[in-house]
Design brief:
The complex is a heterotrimer.
Chain A lengths: L1 E2 L2 E7 L7 H16 L11 H14 L1 H26 L7 H19 L10 H30 L3 H20 L25 E2 L2 E2 L1 H18 L1 H11 L1 H6 L4 H25 L11 H17 L4 H24 L6 H21 E7 L2 H4 L10
Antiparallel strand pairs in A: 1-2, 2-5, 3-4
Helix pairs in contact in A: 1-13, 2-3, 2-12, 3-7, 3-10, 3-11, 3-12, 4-5, 4-6, 4-10, 4-11, 5-6, 5-10, 7-8, 11-12, 11-13, 12-13
Chain B lengths: L1 H26 L7 H19 L2 H25 L4 H20 L4 E2 L13 H19 L1 H11 L1 H6 L4 H27 L2 E2 L7 H11 L4 H19 L11 H20 L1 H7 L15
Antiparallel strand pairs in B: 1-2
Helix pairs in contact in B: 1-5, 1-8, 1-9, 1-10, 2-3, 2-4, 2-8, 2-9, 3-4, 3-8, 5-6, 9-10, 9-11, 10-11
Chain C lengths: L2 H6 L17 E10 L2 E11 L4 E5 L6 H9 L6 E6 L2 E3 L4 H6 L2 E4 L11 H6 L11 H15 L14 H14 L4 E5 L7 H18 L2 E6 L2 H7 L2 E6 L2 E7 L5 H9 L16 E11 L5 E11 L2 E6 L6 H9 L6 E6 L2 E2 L5 H7 L1 E4 L14 H5 L10 E2 L2 E2 L1 H14 L16 H13 L5 E5 L7 H16 L3 E6 L2 H7 L2 E6 L2 E2 L3 E2 L5 H8 L11
């Protein structure tokens, strides 16, 4: 692009100045929010009023804040589920499928042990742990399946995980609708209610999974920064050929990252349906939770692979999605404001992605335009 | 029975259009994994336009235009900015998925217009599909521009050194792919199943993407594959026609996706690759810088 | 210049009388080009006479390729102008250059390997539009080929052709486009000595009989002396000298190229130790599934260097990768220090003391986005001394990296700078330092000096000799016969996946080795 005697070009960036990462991430979020103002054009209130109601509900209202934190835990598990394979250069878009697998496995525990009466009370502590483990294992299995195919046969993991998403989606439908095994006795197209003894313990409205997720964030960052395994994963993600040269085995690592990622997604599934008050069953709109998982994907991308860095981002997105749904009701907006916001965030992220590797530069235009050159050949 | 076949072929055009467009831009070296997003957005734009204006041609035009625009955006990111094509593709998918959910929700429900008539008992779109496949095959393999496209996808440096504008060719192909993806989405929402619902494609776009790999970048094999998938999909929707009473209908819905996985695995094995895998455009997905 | 070099490249002068240089056909004035961080060309002037072979001589990094890319329209200069037949011209892309009769054959092949020769030749040709009329084009191209003396099978797929024929295809393609000025960028680097002779003879005929003008870009003095009329020497982006070849000698040219004298170390003859590696009938496939290594056998002792001489593409990649554990062997056996290691993983080989310096330094041997310390960790992450209980010893790695930077005189801002900011020579030194710091007992060095300038090359060769003196068995895989002959105790020419012979240095005559690199005495059943 020409501007007088200068030219605006994109040049490869040599090194990223410190603090730029945060700046660019923040910028992307702000731009997305600004763009989302278009969504409120049809609203009752002013644009600023819409934003105010979103933030006020999400972060200032005690009920809203609790809901935000609960959703943030869900999103963070999903973030980690995407983040671990991402560091190895692999895309785990199978988050919804792994979440569903985790939910099914968690509910399989009371289902298996009930002996005919879904409301019988159980000795809770050990069973809750069993549910978490089962959810993690199921998610890990689904994720690991894609990981094995990728590692052993180089099958494109994007395709396999998307197929698995659809398969798991219909599997849940089968389980909870039209006479499926998990169907609630009242037959409303949802699963049986979780026995009260098996609900996740809360402290001031926050389930114990909050501890799990914070511990996970710290451990993940330590893993990548300090351990040999983390180093190997990063090397594989940056340059698979060099990693092989250095003795790093892609098969094992691909499997490990997908198993670990899948496990996180499985626990997210556990959390969504057993740890949020008012839900406590596999709801009929379980697909929505699958869609929500993609906020986790974006958090991981914006945080550029940093687990702790993703925490504030996920909390923000949790609040925004909840607040947007609230504003949608309060301002009579069409359904899907939170989905639209998701889309805009992804768009600005991809746009900002460019800034990590390129920078805008103002250069003087090439001499050919500036300085007239002799048409005939001068002497050397 | 004939009804089922006709309906299957109509379903197969959804796969066919999107996959054919993707085949062309992959042949030129650009990978677009966000195909589903372009189909969603094209279909939604077409539905909204037709419902608002009552005109099918305008609706299709809107679908094609939106698909082409998104293709252009993907091209800008992938070609001019030399960005990661998977990131851009995924971005377009989530962007479309999110925005169409919001933009289309006021229009949820049936289109409410009279259906597009069949031609000789077959969907006119299937016939269009066959024409397009023939045209693409002819151009790609029998003309100089087609040779240029294929060379840009195999070795862009060689193409550039032969005087071929690799960037321009890739832009053309990625827009063409986008237009066809938009056509695919529009066909779904305006003809095949004219009822709008959020995320109405439910993963078909990714199946189309898989089909491009299955077809080994050959338009005729693609036609065969798309037809097979159309039949399989239609069967999964109404299994009682073939196997009444066996298994819940939800299990049947899983089948087309489940079948894709072993096929994908098979064509990825080294045994298969050394025999037939040499057809993959060598420079697929790799950003190209001049000089 | 070592004697060996002169013997190997004892080519007949293919060029007889200097061409009449009435009016320059191609000229450049004050060409300047800047890339981020480096001034590639600094006010370069060039004059090329019609019907001559004009050599552009310089080391790697002198700016030769950049200048040619500008002449061909691939790159735009920041300052300066080009003149064709006295008139000023500017090329926005190769399309313009081709339209004006300039053709270029690049250092690396610019051919689509999956397509046929004919498809490659007609690609982008202005006369071939719309529907492809391959039959008409075929007869045209064949006629052209016979007239110019370059004949190739037009129906063959390019991946099936040997390197020399591929280059012939590119030359034919340029001529079919109507090139009157042919730019050849390092055309001889991937050719065997007989192929070089054929090429130079062909160029001589082109120039003499057809009046084509040739720009020959090279860093090889014997080629310049044998084939050119005039030579322009570039150094550091500037013109260092302009000479008539008849009035120059190799010594004068070296002085201009380098600016001062460089001495090469001569190896000491040391007593060899016990057998370190034994290879028996090793075979392996390449990436396309074809048999690339067809039964290689040799053995090597401590303190010995085996030089494997061959043009790239004859199985060296596969041999190096099999020995490093990065490619499975189809049959055969590798014994290292008595142990059968044929199926051992790369990781175990590192642990056992096998060190590998790959040819692709930026793509395989290092990770561009990682810091230098993290790159060091690439061959230390499994080492108990640097990774205890799963945790990496960051300070230990940092210390090791700093030692390598000092010992090998590597120019880098600090240990945590990213590897992508190192120049080729410094990166290669880092890789070598990292591998040698493990004190390997077997060192596989694959094209270790490729693309390095004279100083870095001398350094690397010296490091190899140090490794040998310290007790290692060294496998040196190189295309540079001079390098092989000056460093090795044993020489093995490789052709189409087999060794022609394994000769002690005293018996290794440069002409004989060169001929065996080109397949002399090679029979299909593998017997010699």
């Amino acid at each position: 692009m020409r501007l007088g005697r200068h030219e605006l070009t994109l040049e490869p960036r040599q090194a990223l100045p410190p603090g730029y990462t945060v700046l660019i991430a923040a910028g992307a979020i702000v731009v997305a929010l600004a763009l989302s103002s278009f969504l409120f054009v049809s609203a009752d209130a002013s644009v600023l009023g819409a934003y105010r109601s979103i933030f006020a509900y999400a972060f200032l209202n005690p009920l809203g804040l609790t809901a935000t934190l609960q959703r943030a835990i869900y999103l963070l598990f999903c973030t980690f589920a995407f983040l671990v394979p991402l560091r190895a250069g692999l895309w785990n878009i199978g988050l919804p499928g792994q979440v569903f697998a985790g939910a099914l496995a968690a509910f399989a525990v009371p289902f298996a042990l009930r002996g005919g009466d879904t409301q019988a009370s159980f000795a809770s502590g050990g069973l809750i742990i069993l549910m978490v483990v089962a959810a993690a294992a199921a998610g890990a299995a689904v994720g690991g399946f894609a990981g094995v195919l990728r590692a052993r046969f180089q099958v494109n993991e994007i395709l396999v995980t998307m197929m698995l998403n659809s398969i798991m989606f219909w599997l849940v439908a089968y389980m909870i609708k039209e006479g499926g095994p998990f169907m609630s006795p009242t037959g409303e197209g949802e699963s049986f209610a979780l026995p009260p003894g098996l609900r996740a313990p809360l402290w001031r409205g926050i389930p114990f999974t909050a501890l799990l997720v914070v511990a996970a964030a710290v451990l993940l960052d330590l893993l990548f920064a300090k351990t040999a395994l983390g180093y190997r994963i990063r090397a594989l993600g940056e340059n698979p050929a060099a990693a092989r040269y250095g003795g790093i085995i892609p098969v094992m690592l691909s499997l490990i990252v997908f198993v670990l990622g899948g496990a996180f997604a499985g626990v997210a599934g556990y959390h969504a349906f057993t740890a949020i008050p008012g839900v406590y069953k596999i709801a009929g709109n379980y697909g929505f939770y699958g869609d929500l998982a993609f906020y986790g994907l974006i958090s991981a991308l914006i945080a550029r692979g940093s687990a702790l860095g993703a925490v504030p981002i996920a909390v923000l997105f949790a609040g925004l999605s909840l607040g947007a749904r609230f504003a949608q009701g309060a301002l009579h907006l069409p359904f899907g404001v939170d989905y639209a916001l998701l889309g805009l965030l992804m768009m600005t992220f991809v746009g900002s992605h460019v800034l990590y590797t390129f920078r805008f530069a103002l250069r003087r235009t090439t001499a050919e335009v500036l300085r007239p050159v002799a048409p005939e050949l001068p002497e050397a | 029975m004939w009804e089922l076949l006709a309906r299957s072929l109509e379903a197969s055009t959804i796969f066919l259009f999107a996959a054919l467009g993707e085949l062309v831009n992959q042949r030129s070296g650009v990978l677009n994994v966000g195909l589903e997003g372009l189909m969603l957005f094209g279909g939604t734009a077409a539905f909204i336009t037709t419902q608002a204006t009552g005109s099918y041609p305008l609706g299709f035009l809107a679908g094609l235009a939106v698909g082409g625009l998104l293709g252009l955006a993907h091209g800008f990111f992938s070609i001019s900015l030399r960005g990661d094509q998977v990131v851009s593709g995924m971005g377009l998918w989530i962007l479309s998925f999110g925005l169409t959910t919001y933009l289309g929700s006021p229009y949820t429900g049936p289109l409410g217009l009279s259906r597009i008539p069949a031609v000789f008992g077959l969907s006119p779109f299937f016939l269009l599909g066959v024409v397009l496949v023939t045209a693409v095959w002819l151009v790609l393999f029998r003309t100089a521009p087609g040779l240029a496209v294929r060379s840009a996808g195999e070795n862009p440096a060689a193409a550039e050194a032969s005087g071929i504008p690799v960037g321009g060719i890739r832009y053309l192909c990625v827009v063409f792919g986008g237009v066809l993806a938009g056509l695919s989405g529009a066909t779904y929402t305006l003809s095949y199943n004219p009822v709008w619902n959020y995320n109405f494609l439910m993963g078909w776009g990714f199946v189309s993407l898989a089909l491009v790999f299955f077809s080994m970048w050959n338009p005729w094999i693609l036609l065969a594959g798309a037809s097979l998938f159309g039949i399989m999909w239609q069967l999964s929707l109404s299994p009682e026609l073939v196997l009444p009473g066996v298994l819940s209908r939800y299990v049947w819905r899983m089948v087309p996706f489940a079948i894709t996985i072993p096929i994908l695995t098979l064509i990825s094995t080294s045994w298969f690759r050394t025999r037939w895998g040499l057809t993959k455009p060598e420079a697929l997905g790799r950003p190209y810088a001049k000089g | 210049m070592p004697d060996a070099a002169r013997r190997v490249h004892n080519l007949q002068r293919v060029v007889s009388a200097p061409a009449a240089a009435a009016r320059g056909i191609l000229a450049a004035r004050r060409i300047t080009k800047r890339f981020p961080g480096v001034l590639a060309l600094d006010r370069v002037d060039l004059d090329v006479a019609p019907g001559e072979i004009h050599a552009i001589l310089g080391q790697n990094g002198a700016g030769k390729t950049t200048l040619m890319n500008i002449l061909f329209g691939l790159v735009q200069p920041d300052d300066g102008a080009l003149y064709l037949g006295g008139r000023q011209v500017s090329f926005r892309s190769p399309h313009d250059a081709l339209a004006q009769g300039i053709g270029m054959v690049h250092q690396t092949r610019r051919l689509v390997s999956a397509h046929t020769v004919l498809e490659n030749i007609v690609l982008g040709h202005p006369r071939v539009r719309g529907f492809l009329d391959l039959r008409g084009a075929r007869s045209d191209v064949q006629a052209l080929g016979t007239r110019y003396g370059f004949t190739v099978d037009l129906g063959a797929r390019v991946w099936q052709l040997p390197e020399g024929e591929r280059q012939g295809v590119e030359i034919l393609k340029a001529l079919y486009r109507g090139a009157r000025i042919l730019i050849l960028d390092e055309p001889t680097s991937a050719l065997t000595p007989p192929e070089v002779k054929t090429l130079l003879a062909g160029l001589g005929a082109l120039v003499r009989d057809q009046g084509v003008t040739v720009l020959l870009v090279t860093h090889k003095l014997p080629i310049v002396m044998a084939a050119s009329h005039r030579v322009t020497v570039l150094r550091g982006g500037r013109v260092a000298a302009r000479l008539r070849t008849a009035e120059a000698t190799e010594e004068i040219l070296v002085k201009h190229m380098v600016g001062r004298d460089i001495t090469f170390r001569t190896p000491e003859r040391a007593a060899a130790g016990s057998p370190m590696i034994q290879v028996e009938h090793l075979t392996a496939h390449n990436d396309k599934g074809q048999l690339a290594l067809r039964g290689v056998s040799f053995s090597l002792r401590e303190k010995e260097i085996l030089g494997i001489a061959g043009v790239t593409g004859n199985g060296q990649d596969e041999l190096a990768q099999v020995l490093a554990g990065l490619r499975p062997a189809v049959s055969g056996r590798v014994r290292f220090d008595g142990r059968n290691v044929t199926r051992l993983s790369p990781l175990e080989r590192w642990r056992m003391g096998i060190g590998y310096v790959p040819a692709e330094r930026a793509e395989v041997a290092s990770i561009a986005a990682f810091s230098l310390v993290e790159n060091t960790a690439l061959t230390y992450h499994f080492d108990p001394a640097f990774a205890r209980r799963g945790l990496l010893d960051d300070s230990g790695l940092k210390g090791l990296t700093r030692r390598i930077l000092t010992d090998y005189n590597i120019k880098a801002p600090h240990e945590y700078a990213r590897a992508q900011h190192l120049s080729g020579g410094n990166l290669q030194k880092l890789i070598l330092g990292r591998v040698l710091s493990r004190k390997p007992r077997l060192l596989i060095a694959h094209l270790p000096t490729q693309g390095l300038d004279v100083e870095a090359t001398a350094f690397v060769r010296s490091a190899l000799l140090d490794a040998k003196a310290a007790g290692a068995a060294v496998l040196l895989i190189s295309e540079d016969l001079d390098e092989i002959l000056s460093l090795s105790d044993w020489v093995a020419p490789i052709y189409e996946g087999r060794f022609g012979a394994v000769l002690p240095r005293e018996e290794a005559d440069a002409e004989l080795i060169g001929a065996m690199m080109a397949g002399l005495g090679h029979r299909e059943d593998g017997e010699r």
